[in-house]
Amino acid sequence: MMKWVLLLLALFGASPTASFTLVKSVRFSRCLRAAATDCPLPGTAKLDVDWKDLGFEFRPTKSHLKLEYKDGAWGKPELVSEPYIKLHIGATALHYGQACFEGLKAFAHEDNSVHMFRPDENAKRLKSSCERTMMPVVPPELFLEAAREVVKDNMAYVPPYGSNGAMYLRPLMFGSGPRIGLQPADEYTFLIMVLPVGDYYKDGLAPIPALVIEDYDRAAPRGVGNVKVAGNYVADLLPNMEGKKKGFPIGLYLDSSTQSTIEEFSTSNFIGINKKEKKYVTPKSSSVLPSITNKSLMDLAKDGGWKVEQREIPIKELETFEEVIACGTAVVVTPIGKVVKGDDIYNFGDGKTVGETTMELYTRMRKIQNGEEEDKFGWNVQVC
Ligand SMILES: *Cc1c(COP(=O)(O)O)cnc(C)c1O
Ligand SMILES: *[C@@H]1O[C@H](CO)[C@@H](O)[C@H](O)[C@H]1NC(C)=O
């Protein structure tokens, strides 16, 4: 019996002292290679809600993907069913915020094939976040393979075509090795968590009011605003809650050094639509997070004959926009009905109806994601 245990341990390259955790992780993890190579059907899992009623919140699925970096090299990706990690109390992510993340979606098409939306862009952005925070880069090919495998393993949880939901992928990278002096960790953990999410706009799109945040900054010009690090979100938590209490579901940040040009909304990019001049305007700044949704909408706008400008936008220019959009993966677009800055109020349209350009961009993007319109830019990456 003991011989078998030792053999098993040797097979997994562990020392006998690690036997307890090892048995557990053997039970809960499977090597990627053992994952299904055939393609299961999306939308077959039994959830506690109807696919149509899914929101945007955590929900258990079959597995997440885990990949560890130790001794200067990446290990093998594993699919793990327990939603927990065992973490060293000295981990740099906990003490110094050495952590970044990504967000992307996968959609089921009518023929039950499942496609991720521009995962190559997330791989690139993760690389720049890792470089800025001194974390090892997940090679883009490895990122894509890992994303594909974890979606495949959780295929039953991909909302079916017609539900208007999606599988949300949340890649996460952090320093898991201990360090107390200020230095990068020497061990890292990369995870991809997946969860089914619903259509943000079950009851249709509706404009919301935005508040210009004047008492706080989200990002500094030469700081980390242009990479997707965890700390950017904690900086926005309090301003966000204060704005919500005042009746504004979304906050708009100006540039932190002069407070005179528009940067971005708390977790989404800013787009101004100037109809008279047929212009799509989005800020250029060193402290704005380059949104993949914004990048995609820019291509759709150009394709539709719009002039696309990426430049500084003085706050006063808000007067020239008929439509203002906040954009990001979770929603694609959020129409902004008005922007309030102290006593100044900028209105867009009647504040109640969704602008036609916003609607057109949204519809076209969603159709491409759902496989209902030709993917002429080659954005969809098939999982299987
Ligand atoms: C993630 C994020 C966005 C949206 O980016 P997408 O790639 O479109 O999802 C916008 N602003 C900030 C600050 C973000 O972190
Ligand atoms: C819009 O997206 C592009 C490409 O990702 C980015 O360079 C630009 O800064 C974005 N605009 C805003 C407001 O973030």
Automatic annotation (TrEMBL):
Molecular-function annotations in GO: branched-chain-amino-acid transaminase activity
Swiss-Prot/TrEMBL keywords: Aminotransferase, Pyridoxal phosphate, Signal, Transferase
Obligatory cofactor(s): pyridoxal 5'-phosphate
InterPro entries, per the entry: Aminotrans_IV, Aminotransferase-like, B_amino_transII, BCAT-like_C, BCAT-like_N, BCAT_family
Protein origin, superkingdom: Eukaryota
Residues with the N6-(pyridoxal phosphate)lysine modification: K228
Any single biological process term in GO: branched-chain amino acid metabolic process
Stretch forming the signal peptide: 1-19
Gene3D superfamilies associated with the record: 3.30.470.10, D-amino Acid Aminotransferase, subunit A, domain 2
Protein's UniProt keywords contain Transferase: yes
Family of the protein in this entry: Belongs to the class-IV pyridoxal-phosphate-dependent aminotransferase family.
NCBIfam families to which the protein is assigned, alphabetical: ilvE_II, PRK13357.1
PANTHER family reported in the protein's UniProt record: AMINO ACID AMINOTRANSFERASE (PTHR42825), BRANCHED-CHAIN-AMINO-ACID AMINOTRANSFERASE 3, CHLOROPLASTIC-RELATED (PTHR42825:SF2)
Protein name: Branched-chain-amino-acid transaminase
Protein source organism: Triparma strigata
